[in-house]
Amino acid sequence: MPEHKYSQAIELLAPAKTAAIGRDAILHGADAVYIGGPAFGARDKAGNSIGDIAELVAYAHRFHARIYVTLNTILHDNELEAARKLAYDCYNAGVDALIVQDMGLLELDLPPIDLHASTQCDIRTPEKARFLADAGFSQIVLARELTIQEIAKVRAAVPADTVIEHFVHGALCVAYSGQCNISHAHTGRSANRGDCSQACRLPYTLQDAKGQIVAFEKHLLSVKDNNQSDNLHALIDAGVRSFKIEGRYKEAAYVKNITGHYRLLLDQILNERPELHAASSGKTKLLFTPDPDKTFHRGATDYFAQGRKADIGAFDTPTFVGLELGTVTQVGDKWFEMESNEPLANSDGLNYLHKREVIGLQANVVESRNKVWRIYPNEPLHTLPGFRSGLAINRNRDHAWEQVLARKSAERRIGVSAIFAETIDGFSLTLQDEDGITAPAIVAFDKQPANDPETAEDSVREQLTRFGSSDFVLDMLTIDWTLPWFVPSSLANKLRRDAVEKLEQARIESFTRIPRKTAAEPPATYPEESLTFLANVYNSAARTFYARHGVKLMAAAYEAHQEAGEVPLMITRHCIRYSLSLCPKQAKGVIGVQGQVRAEPMTLVNGSEKLRLEFDCRACEMHVIGKMKKQILKMPPPASVPVTFHPHR
């Protein structure tokens, strides 16, 4: 399909734990923000009231930015009505779209709100993507594991008006999203219901089929964080139009920094490719230099974007160790010294690695001695295990950096052109913004020639360029008069204020929400006729949906507790054997090794927990096999959820 048939709007989509962080995201260049509502979001501890969301919507729409609410958990029958009411509350608050996992929602009486298919829908194939587009989703969030070539195949399979959304930064779930049940099996906390216990970040010992130890207490299911900074051009060419940053549990500093980072990169591309444009209005001016290494990450990987790589794991630690500063050169009784070219500050957070454990300490007082730094930590040195000369020291909290981001760190303004003109009985000021929206202001005044014609125009320009704390910045001012008139400062200021107020109102009135996409008729046929528990069918409405789309056999979701035996608790494209150079495909053709390496089962051990690993080499996937604990099987189903819906403010 030719490139020009796709949308040319490029959307930078940022996360928000709170409405305040959502405002920061927009200020730092986000074209859209996704945020959790009061319930049913895939991050259950990141909920927000409808009133707060309504205020965020009003702020976003000033810049024609959009707000998406996550309603992307699977739902029990007892929760369907509460979810339906929440959808209406979101719509009435002005929300632009709902991000959805449970297909049962499409069977309910929903408002005409736009629907996006969550990455929890496990969208890996062109066939699945096409089905969701035909079912009524306008935007689909692809699996993070896809290569750029696979993304292009999905793009080619769906209608031109379907927006392809893809994660470009942040934490990675090691399993295909929506295909991980290990948390529920072990703790009763379901990742599909927003309460993942993050078993993938635990340390495991890997044993082979004979019980021999292959790796000891490594975080073998923990992968580095996603960073697609170098692949943005290729992703655009593959058809991605919404670039999503992970992080609805992250604080404001992370959102400011990472949003600003991708805003700069995307703006550079937009300048190079005039056929593309930002999905919202205004230009962001950052008052700091973004640096992704400064905020939480587990190391960087572009995952499978350019094909399978062996170094995607964060096996040593799942925590943020930051950047290496230098090496300890001397240890005193209350201080230590290290050489570093990086400036340090009081209250910096430091750490080092000792016996596979990250040990943290805080710099209480820092003294500079010509690139040698004497550091007095808060912690007594004798309590820090293994602390000695020669240790590599990292910094995972840069106090000076945090102080910069704690202050005003960005401005966002919408460019306007202005025409100041004389009228029959006074003056007018007409503003036109970068979207072509205009607003005139008129004032009656008994015109008199200026006493000082040479400075009259400069005086008018000085008054009319003062847009202050408004959303606008003046790009160009044209003065259209027959002769220099006397224009009092008070009159010019009134004209400007009136014009700005009218332009703000005109922008609000011109903004339109994208309506719900009409599903294909007759209903599209689902790519498969039967569904396993991995389809996450948890309610009667979802069963009705799939039956209406041609599915004949359906197993209940894992959370329904009908799978008592061993099943794949996690399906992942990350392969531990490959990362440890034990893959049969890697050994193929290697003299002395060929035929000796087999994809036999292995076992992950964490305390009393044992998980069998099976390797599907044809699909190049790893399955983590286990079963649900007996006490989890006996847990009752969810009761009717008492959701408090806050009024629109």
TrEMBL record:
Ranges for domain Peptidase U32 collagenase: 393-508
UniProt name for this protein: Peptidase U32
PANTHER family on file: 23S RRNA 5-HYDROXYCYTIDINE C2501 SYNTHASE, PEPTIDASE U32 FAMILY
Residues spanning the signal sequence: none
Domain of life, source organism: Bacteria
Pfam family, one: DUF3656
Species in which this protein is naturally found: Sideroxydans lithotrophicus (strain ES-1)
PROSITE patterns documented for this protein: PEPTIDASE_U32 (PS01276)
